[in-house]
Structures are given as structure tokens and as C-alpha cells.
Design a protein that fits this description.
It is built from six helices and no strands. It is mostly helical.
């Protein structure tokens, strides 16, 4: 009769069980990513990111549905409770320090786009992992996950472009005030134009 330790070792090395855990964890991450991309799109308004992120959000929602289809193939229930926890964590993350107490900081856009880029990289890792598994498991459509991986690569490039643009706005030379000039003796000089006044006696 197998001992508890033997049963635990067998369970921890069961590929199907581990894959189910892996899929559930990525689904939870996708829930947080979906909420973040839509909030970021609204926050950026009419800017470049605000114009491009809604289409990207639709793609991310489609990717999530593709993941649900794969989970269904492996009879993995959608972990709504875990997804809810991820959404709550994403909402709590809004309170992260950004250098301002009330108003939205330009740095918020940089941090959000960095988080989205990291999420897309994690999703790409998922699709590539599933592509590897598909070699020996016909429950996964190898062509479909290859297409999803290619799309994730494109999403990463788009987010990188938007991130760099946001960095330029928030942290680039154009975002910094012109430094005050100093005189030869090290004292600050005023930027006001100097006007000579001639006294007439």
C-alpha cells in the first residue's frame, strides 16, 4: 500500500495535474492583464497609447478566450475565484507610489506599459510552452498556439514602442525644466530679460 509520501510524490510529478495548475495560473494573470490594459487605455485618452490600446485590449480578450478553449480540452474549470483575486490585486496596485498623491503622474503611464509588456512576455512563454507540449499531445492545436505566439510577439513590440514614447514624455529631456543659469561666481541668474535704465539728470 503506497504511503502518503509516495502519493504526494506521485501527485507532484503528474504532468497533467501540473499542466492544469499552470493553465489556471496563467488564466488568473490574463484576468488582471485584461483589466489593466482597459484601464490604461482609458487613462491615456486621445494620446498615442490611448488610440492603440483599445485594439490591443480586444486582442488580449481573444487570447484569453483561446486559453479557455485549451483549458476546456484538458477539462480544467475556469478558476473564477482565482481570477477575482488577480483582479483585486490589480486594483490594489493602483495605489502604488508614483510621485503624486492625487493627480495622475506621467510616470503612471510608463509603469502601466511596462507591466503590460511583462504580461505579454509571460503570455508568449505560455504559448511557446503549449507549442512544445503539442508535439506529443493532440489536445492542443499546434498551429493555433503558433499563431498566438506570433501575435504575442507583435503585441510586445507595440507595447515597447508605446513604453518608450511614454518614457520620453515623462522622463526625457523635453519633460525637464530648463536649468537655471549661474554666474561666474556660482550665483543663480534670473531668466528675466535685463533692461537698462538710463537716468537723465
Amino acid at each position: 500500500m503506497p504511503s502518503d509520501r509516495d502519493r504526494s510524490r506521485s501527485s507532484s510529478s503528474d504532468p497533467d495535474r501540473l499542466l492544469r495548475v499552470y493553465l489556471r495560473d496563467h488564466y488568473a494573470g490574463s484576468a488582471a492583464g485584461d483589466a489593466l490594459v482597459r484601464r490604461t487605455a482609458r487613462a491615456h485618452g486621445p494620446g498615442p497609447a490611448g488610440r492603440r490600446l483599445p485594439a490591443l485590449a480586444d486582442e488580449i480578450a481573444e487570447d484569453r478566450e483561446s486559453l479557455v478553449g485549451i483549458m476546456t480540452s484538458f477539462r480544467v474549470p475556469v478558476p473564477r475565484a482565482r481570477a477575482l483575486v488577480a483582479r483585486c490585486a490589480e486594483k490594489i496596485g493602483r495605489a502604488k507610489p508614483n510621485g503624486r498623491l492625487v493627480a495622475r503622474s506621467p510616470l503612471s503611464g510608463v509603469l502601466e506599459l511596462e507591466a503590460l509588456r511583462l504580461a505579454a512576455a509571460g503570455k508568449l512563454a505560455l504559448w511557446r510552452s503549449l507549442g512544445e507540449i503539442a508535439r506529443g499531445d493532440d489536445r492542443i492545436d499546434a498551429g493555433a498556439v503558433h499563431h498566438l505566439a506570433t501575435r504575442a510577439e507583435r503585441q510586445i513590440e507595440q507595447l515597447q514602442d508605446l513604453r518608450l514614447a511614454a518614457v520620453g514624455v515623462a522622463l526625457g529631456p523635453g519633460a525637464r525644466p530648463e536649468p537655471r543659469r549661474t554666474s561666474a561666481d556660482g550665483r543663480r541668474r534670473s531668466h528675466r530679460p535685463f533692461t537698462k535704465v538710463w537716468w537723465v539728470s
